[in-house]
Task: structure prediction
Amino acid sequence: MSTLASASSGRTGLGRFLIRTVVGAGRTMRRLEAKVLHSSILVSVPCKYRRFGLQLIKLLLVLAVASVALFLAIGMVALWAMAALPITASDDEEPGVHQVSHPQHQHKYPELYDEYGSLK
Result:
């Protein structure tokens, strides 16, 4: 007995948007390729060089998108790791003048206390 998946990417709003975006980008790229390959301005450039140039541009575009995605992924992992670290205050820190509740305040600033240990 097999069960069907309850949701697919095409059924969600974001999935539909992403699919439409990718399809639109593909159509735009094909139109651009057709314009460049049949361009009257680039008639003097042989067709194989025009195709090579288009392939190079597509490769650079894919590498740019991949590098941004990698940068974002590394940033998310770093953010996740920093969020998982505990926040600890060092007990060795010396108190400031106004931190009278610190246990070491009386020893660091004895001039602020009287002979009975109360603040002056």
